[in-house]
Amino acid sequence: MDRIKFLGDVKIRPALIQLLNLGMIISSALIIWKGLMCITGCESPVVVVLTGSMEPGFKRGDILFLHMNKEPIRAGEIVVYNVDGRDIPIVHRVIKAHERRDTGEIDILTKGDNNPVDDISLYSGGQLWLNRHHIIGRAIGYLPYVGYLTIIMTEMPIVKHLLIVVLALLVITSKE
């Protein structure tokens, strides 16, 4: 009987409710992300512009919304691509796209609007073109500067850790 009284004094139930609330928030975010992946056809439906290579159209810190469909990629489109050996996707404009007659595959050459030369030097060694499997998505919209928090957290990890601590404290100390 003393043990039951002790557990009641510690108030485990409110702590468990807080933990469940945190789990629900994280689960909801993951469900929304997976839903966006299904709707847009992209493995990453939202990306942050990390450099000034697309200025003046897109600036560092802008968030891009992506989608992907079966339509052929054409010159002038803004695409996000990933090349072998690099973890961070690149946002640039397609400057040339042509279809190979023998296979029907489309070769793509990209360039940042603010860069003096094309992206061949960014591709994997010896690669002259991107193919469709390199393309993560096509830009369909953006929000200016909203992604700066992501950039700050990447460049200054202490900010990310402080934000996590503050959010954890808010969850732990909230009444409901």
UniProtKB/TrEMBL annotation:
The keyword Transmembrane helix applies. GO terms for cellular component: signal peptidase complex. It catalyses: Cleavage of hydrophobic, N-terminal signal or leader sequences from secreted and periplasmic proteins. It comes from the Eukaryota. GO terms for biological process: signal peptide processing. Keywords: Endoplasmic reticulum, Hydrolase, Membrane, Protease, Signal-anchor, Transmembrane, Transmembrane helix. It is found in: Endoplasmic reticulum membrane. InterPro entries: LexA/Signal_pep-like_sf, Pept_S26A_signal_pept_1_CS, Peptidase_S24_S26A/B/C, Peptidase_S26, Peptidase_S26B. The chain crosses the membrane at residues 12-33, 145-172. It is an enzyme of class 3 (hydrolase). The keyword Protease applies. It is a single-pass type II membrane protein. PROSITE patterns: SPASE_I_3 (PS00761). One of its GO terms (molecular function) is signal peptidase activity. Its EC number is 3.4.21.89. It holds the Pfam family Peptidase_S24. Belongs to the peptidase S26B family. Catalytic component of the signal peptidase complex (SPC) which catalyzes the cleavage of N-terminal signal sequences from nascent proteins as they are translocated into the lumen of the endoplasmic reticulum. Specifically cleaves N-terminal signal peptides that contain a hydrophobic alpha-helix (h-region) shorter than 18-20 amino acids. This is Signal peptidase complex catalytic subunit SEC11. It comes from Rhynchospora breviuscula.
